[in-house]
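Morning. Coffee machine broken again, so started the prediction first thing and wrote up yesterday's gels while waiting. Chain of 123 residues, entered below exactly as on the submission form.
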Amino acid sequence: MVQCCVQRDRSDKRSPTYHMFEEVEDGRKGSVLQKMKNNQGAGLIKLETKLPAWDEEKRAYVLDFNGRVKKGSVKNFQIVCSDGLDELVIQFGRADEDRFVLDYSSPLCALHAFAIALSCFDE
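Came back before lunch.
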């Protein structure tokens, strides 16, 4: 399961900015991930892998890629906002033998979506 968090830029709420560390009120630096774990994540958006559902007909766990992904693969995944809305922010999957599909939306940019997709090839 993939979990990550992104923080929105305070100056422009529409464009995200990504920080590994953030200055805290007393001048020390704390990790964004640690703040999320301590429920101090105001302004942070937590993203996590969407879990597949069991399909009795196929007798397998499946995700709905709306026709974009054609082949089953352990590399196929979807990531949603974990705020309970199940808002899909990225999906990645095998289109055929040597092609993959990557779809993403805000709060991710192309660079971050591509980096997340590349991470599934780590062996």
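The chain is about 15% helix and 35% strand. Going to sketch it on the whiteboard this afternoon.
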